[in-house]
Amino acid sequence: MFSSFNPPLALEVTLVTPALVIEGIFQTRLRRLSDVLNEAGTEHLILSDARVMELGSRRIVAGPGVVRVQLGDVLFAHRNTPVDAGAEMRTSMQPVKSVLLVTPFTIEGQIHLAYEPDIARALDAQASRFMTVSAANYWAYAVAESPRAVDQLLVSREKTHVAIPAGVQWLTEAPPDRSSGGSNPW
């Protein structure tokens, strides 16, 4: 609703499908790529100044030009510039070191889960179409995709297997907010 008051932003993004890597610019009034990808009713993105490359070889098959990308085909996406994640997290969540398997890719990083009585319930409670992985590294050696590190990766929840190592420290409640300066609620 209030996004119409924000000036338009040009997000440089990379979208990865099972066969293609698509890089281009997406115009939006939303600040976070996660908001764009998880917005209800969004079925595709239109990228300008885009190029389409084959997965593995990175041979350019189209571009530069305008490209329409179906979100249902996207395995994961990320911005091509560093993300200032400072105050953008909306709810209190805990980072959990994980390995995500999105054929043919392996992704290592931290997923962010709600505070729940157990980790399985928190993982099952994720409802967004794309989940956020911070401090992410991804690769696909089987198709000659070398490792790449990104600040934040948005991974299709529908196409992802998540593995959380045994022994991960799990908190059932958020730590107290220390920014208020004391315990006085007034």
Topology:
Elements: E1 9-16, E2 20-28, H1 33-38, E3 44-54, E4 60-70, E5 76-79, E6 93-102, E7 105-114, H2 119-124, E8 130-140, E9 145-156, E10 161-163
Antiparallel strand pairs: 1-2, 1-5, 2-3, 3-4, 5-9, 6-7, 6-10, 7-8, 8-9
- Helical percent range? under 10%
Q: What is the strand tally?
A: 10
Shape: globular
Mean pLDDT: 84
Structural class by secondary-structure content:
mainly beta
Q: Report Rg.
A: 18 Å
- Please give the order of strands in the largest beta sheet: 4-3-2-1-5-9-8-7-6-10
Per DSSP, the total helix count is 2
Low-confidence stretches: none
- What is the succession of H and E elements? EEHEEEEEHEEE
The profile of the biggest β sheet is: 10 strands, antiparallel
Beta-strand residue percentage: over 45%
Distance between the termini: 31 Å
